[in-house]
Amino acid sequence: MPLALLALAVVAFGIGTTEFATMGLLPQIADGIDVSVPHAGNLVSAYALGVVVGAPVLTGIGARIPYKRLLLLLSGLFVVGNIASALAPNFGLLFAARFLAGLPHGALFGVGAVVASRLVTPDRAARAVSKMFLGLTVANIIGVPASTALGQHLGWRSAYWAVAVIGGVALAALALFVPHQPRGGQTGIRHELRAMGNRQVVIGLATAVVGFGGFFAVYSYLVPMLTNVTGISDSSTTLVLALYGVGMTLGTLIAGPLTDRALRPTLYAGLALLAVALVTFYFAVHATVPALITIVAIGALGSLITTPVQMLLMTKADQAPTMAAASNHSAFNLANAGGAWLGGLSISAGWGWTSPTLVGAALALAGLALAFAGGLMDRGGRSDVVASSDAEPSPRSDQVTMTKP
Asked: What positions belong to coiled-coil segments (predicted)?
C-alpha cells in the first residue's frame, strides 16, 4: 500500500472511530453532562447532521483549493471538532462540537477518494478507494471498542482526546506522504454543482440512501435483537459488533478488485445478496452460531456496496467528481437516519424485534431497482462505468473515467 493511501486510511480510521464511539459511551456522557440517555442520543444526530450539511457546503467552499491543501484544512477542522467535544462543559456546547466534528466527514472522504483514485492507474482506481475505506471498517474492529473501553475507564472525554490525537497523526501523514494534485483548468462551485445535475449522479445518490438504508435498519437494532432474541449477554455484544466490523473489512477488501473489473454487476450483486442475507437473518437470529455467521455476511455485503456507489458517482461526475464523492457520505448518513427510523417503526408497530430485517431487505431491493434504472439509462450508448482488467488506460493520468469498448 503506498504511504499516501495509508495516510488516507488513517484519516478514515479516525472518522470511523469518532462517528460510532459516541453510541457506546452514551450512559457515561449522559451522567457527565447531567442529561438523560435518550437526550444524550441527540449527540449522534448532531454528528450526522454535520455530515449531511458539511459534505456539499465544505466541498463547494473548497472547490478551487488544491486537493492536498484542502485535505489538510479539513483534517485540522476534524481535530478542532474533537478537541471541542472533549472540552465541552454542557450539552449545548457538546451538541455544537459534535456538529462541528461531523462537518468535514463527507468532504474528507470525497476529496480523499478522488485523491486515492488518482494515485494509481485508472484500472486500479476502485482498489485504491477501497483501501482508504479500510480505515473506516478497521475502526469498527479496533477503534470503536478501544475508545469505548477508554471512555468507560478514564471518562468519556478521554475518547474524544484520543480521536483528536489520531486526527493529528493523520494530519502529519497527509502532509508528509500525499503528493500535490492540481485541480485542473475548470474548477469552482458552479462547475461542481453542474456535475451534480447529472441524472446518473442523482440516481446513484438515491441508490445509496435507499439501498444502504437496508443495512442500517438492522445495524441500528442489532444489539437488542441479539440480547432479546438470540440470548447473547450484554457483555458479549461488543465482541459481536467487532465481528460485524470483520465482515465489513472483508467486504471492503473484495469490493475494490470486483468494482475495477465490473462496477454495475458488483453493485447489483451486492444489493441483491444483502437482501437475501437480511431475510436469512430473520430466521437465523434465533440461534447463536447461524446468527453470528449471518452477521459477518451482512457486514461484508453492506461494505461491498460502498465502493461501487462511490466510483459510480465519481465516474458520472468525472469532470467535477469531488462534490459527488462527498455527497455520497451525506447519502449514507441519510440512509443511517432513514433506515433506523423505518426499522424502529416496525418494532413500535408490534411486529417484533426481528422485523427490521425484513424492512432492511425491502430497502435493499428498492435500492437494487434504482441501480437497475441507472443501468438501463446506460443502454444504447457508451457505458463508462463498467471496467475490466484489460481496459485501455485513460489518456489523461488525472482522469478516473474508465471505458469499455
From this structure: none
Provide the grid cell at 173.
501523514
Does some domain include residue 142?
yes
Contact call for residues 25 and 156 (beta carbons, < 8 A):
yes
Dist CA 284 CA 127 (whole Å): 32
CATH of the domain at 224: 1.20.1250.20
Number of domains in the chain: 2
Q: Please tell me the distance from the alpha carbon of residue 213 to that of residue 216, in angstroms, as a whole number.
A: 5
Confidence (pLDDT) at 361: 96
**317 vs 392: CA distance, rounded Å:** 20
In a domain, 387, yes or no: no
Domain for residue 82, yes or no? yes
- CB neighbours of residue 113 within 10 Å: 32
Structural domain span for residue 72: 1-179
Residue 211 sits in the same domain as residue 357: yes
Report field, pTM of the whole predicted structure over 0.70: yes
Cβ neighbours of residue 320 under 8 Å, at least 6 residues apart?
186, 187, 191, 192, 194, 195, 196
Report pLDDT for 186. Answer: 52
Instruction: Report phi then psi at 277, rounded to 5.
Output: -65, -35
Confidence check: pLDDT of 154 > 50: yes
Q: Does 213 share its domain with 241?
A: yes
Query: Which of 14-18, 239-243, 313-317, 399-403 is least confident?
Result: 399-403
In this structure, are 222 and 167 located in the same domain?
no
Give the residue from 196, 207, 197 showing the smallest Cα distance to 327: 196
* 265 and 332 part of one domain: yes
The more confident residue out of 240 and 155 is 155
pLDDT in tens, 166-179: 999 999 999 999 99
Q: Are 374 and 205 in contact (CB under 8 A)?
A: no
Give the CA dihedral 309, 237, 156, 86, nearest 10 degrees.
Answer: 0
212 shares a domain with 155:
no
Instruction: Determine how many CB atoms are found less than 10 A away from the CB of residue 286.
Output: 12
By CB atoms closer than 10 A (0-12, 13-18, 19+), residue 357 is: buried
Q: pLDDT at position 383, please?
A: 40
Q: Do 165 and 204 sit in the same domain of this protein?
A: no
Query: Which residue is it, cell 423505518?
Result: 342
